[in-house]
Amino acid sequence: MTHLNDLGTDLGALLPGHSTAEGATRRTALKAALGVGYAAAALPIVAQTAIQTPSAGLTVGEVTVDVKGFGVPVYRAAPAGKTGLPVVLVLSEIFGVHDYIADTARRFARAGYLALAPELFVRQGDAQGYGEMAKLIAEVISKVPDAQVAADLDACIDWAGANGGDVNRVGVTGFCWGGRQTWLYSAHQKRIKAGVAWYGRLVGQTSELTPKHPVDVAGQLKGPVLGLYGGADTGIPLDTVEQMKAALAKGNAAARASQFVVYPDAPHAFHADYRPSFRQGPAEDGWKRCLAWFAQHGVA
């Protein structure tokens, strides 16, 4: 079961008539209506702090990755005209690949990466077509199997290898929901050299769709993970961070090499520069640590 308080504060319904998902057409229309392409349930936007990374000199846009006959939309950003690039998978919050996630991918591209941000909820519905967070979680996010996510990400790595990426240098990072998946995928995929998990849930109830949580696979990591968490995050108690640290200490070499940084006064989603939760100091420090972590562990 997915718990609302593990995923962020409910910001309420913003756009009447956008409480149900109707596929790619609705997603495109919503982006056009909002102008800046932010998910409805993620609003209100704090426009004066939202970072806008230019695409000049980059190859950017949506590509389609085949996963057993199903086409998964993926936002791709990379330095234009270059190959042999390190690869980073960028895993979204529950709101899907809206403007913030696309911008984050462009930031990685400017740092020299082939960044891929897949729409991991697309089979279950349109995450950007919901104006109410509770309905988004109940009708879309809670129905996404962890095994589906892993298969989609595996296919993204294969796609990267055929399209300018170096699959011997692969990292994964994610935010909130994507932070939890970062831990899980780092235990699943042997080609992952390192991961960076931003305030992802570490423990929880298991189900058929979510049979394990990060604490359950902590000892089996294929690459070390840097966890970036907020000390004032009301949805992720610090005692669960301590549980995870204890599990990592008993694990393999990659698990023991993993680390946490907890920013004492930072709330959940402190990196989300378009939301009131944004905290510039922790966000900038976390970003520097993220890039350094990838470089240290052979991704850059």
Describe this structure in words.
The protein is of the alpha/beta class and 300 residues long. The chain has one domain (12-50, 58-296): Alpha/Beta hydrolase fold, catalytic domain (Rossmann fold), CATH 3.40.50.1820. 33% of the residues lie in helices and 20% in strands. The protein has nine helices and eight strands. The chain has helices spanning 23-34, 99-110, 133-139, 146-162, 177-188, 214-217, 238-249, 253-257, 280-296, and strands at residues 58-67, 70-79, 85-91, 114-118, 165-175, 192-198, 225-230, 259-263. The protein has an eight-stranded mixed β-sheet with strand order 1-2-4-3-5-6-7-8, with helices on both faces. α6 links the parallel β6 (192-198) and β7 (225-230). α4 (146-162) crosses α5. It is globular, with a radius of gyration of 18 Å. Residues 1-36 have low confidence and may be disordered.
